[in-house]
Amino acid sequence: MQVKPDNCTIVIFGAHSDLAARKLFPSLYQLALWGHLPEEFRILGVGRAELSHAEFRLKVYEKMAGLFPETLPDETAFALFSARLFYVRVDFTEIDGYYALQKELMDGAGASGICTNLLFYLATPPGLAPIIVKNLALAGLGEKDGSFGGWRKIVVEKPYGRNLQTARELNTIIGDVFHEERIFRIDHYLGKETVQNIMVFRFSNGIFEPLWNRHNIANVTITIAEDFGIRDRGAFYEEAGLLRDIMQNHALQLLASVAMEPPVDFSADSVRDEKAKLLRSIRPFTPESAWQSVVLGQYEGYRSEKNVAPDSTVETFAAVKFFVDNWRWKEVPFFIKAGKNLDVTVTEIVITFKCPPQNYFGPAESCSYTANQVILRIQPEETIAIKFGAKRPGESVITDPVYMKFDYKTSFAEPGVTPYHRLLLDAMAGEQMNFIRQDSVEYSWAIIDALREAVGGQPPETYRVHSHGPESVQRIYE
Ligand code: BG6
Questions:
Q1: Average model confidence (pLDDT) for the chain?
Q2: Whose CA is nearest to atom 7 of ligand 1?
Q3: Residue-wise pLDDT tens digits, 324-357
Q4: How far is the CA of 50 from the centre of ligand 1 (A)?
Q5: CA-wise closest residue to 345 among 478, 229, 176, 171
Q6: CA-to-CA separations, 53 to 44, 45, 46, 57, 468, in angstroms, rounded
Q7: Three-state DSSP class for 123?
Q8: CA 307 / ligand 1 centre spacing (Å)
């Protein structure tokens, strides 16, 4: 575990949000329990409801007890934690509340650093980020003010903007108030152990990297499948759709991790330089290429979900064939398939190698059956498998695919921490490697914007719940 971060106050905008209830408060509670938070810290919830500190503490307790009864609450431990919880009412669009917040922050002095080191966390709907940041600046809580001592940082949840233009506008607004080194654009996929391991797998082993290129690899397939629908997030999904919710961030970040060049060193910016370069190399879509490269889908029944328009054309599924136009990957297809309400819940990356030049052990077509693969299973199992052909025991020479498998659970005794544990600590400590830099956000949006434009408003194809997705998905593999 890393060194303890500096004493600080964590200010959570959207203290009543689902994200705060499911991820932020439980993670902070556990980090406090494990002794990984600073010696002195405060958590200040910010929301629109009128609540006292005591009422807020009770609400947090009740939510956590309802959601995670097994981990919580040891009432004594929670009492220690909740003594650090405070609340301020702010109407996000009204400046007055920000002055109250500023006063609360300054009055809450105690141990050194608490009132000078501030981590703002925006767990609010994406459209509110600009106004919150502008108001923070007006109330003298921005980072570029420079006269406060200590540090001020901001964590912004995805989706970061809703296209290239709004992402750029948001970058400008936040950039006026915080330096880039203090901005943490979160994509929780980058906090997953198995995602962080992609780079370690590639760059700490001598045997894979020499093969990791167009001479040896036939294709790469990335799957982010969920066997459940949009749950109660109809309003959000109607605004976002799968391309903005998953493709622009989680999926493209997986692609960048698996395809990037080795960084100059293992520093945040060297790694992020390579990811940005990779995203920049993705071939833009045109209306001609889109037909063969993109299939969008919507699950049956989506239009009857709560807060969804009865004639909605929002996609809940996308299968896309990308090409990376660089020296290493030219003409190797990267298939990404992501969707809600599919037949399984799994996230994995499958690297399929080319067949041997001569097939002694069966007809030519059998190669695809035995082709070598490296399978990086991100979740729910956390495994890496290598698939290769082996002789089936017996008199004849028949090859069968077999697997060598590494499993996190059996190889390592320590339980992994969740992405939010890790990313919250990283943000407090100022470690940016697993947060998305401004240029990468913009390159990713440019790809998605071009894709949407190329598809040209074609309605998504309906697919059956718990199926593989739309029937025509096959066409992108041809
Ligand atoms: C979120 C998306 O970012 O990631 C959700 O908004 C998706 O739609 C979720 O379900 C998946 O995250 P995880 O960690 O459960 O795979």
A1: 93
A2: 246
A3: 999 999 999 999 999 999 999 999 999 999 998 8
A4: 30
A5: 229
A6: 9, 9, 11, 6, 48
A7: coil
A8: 19
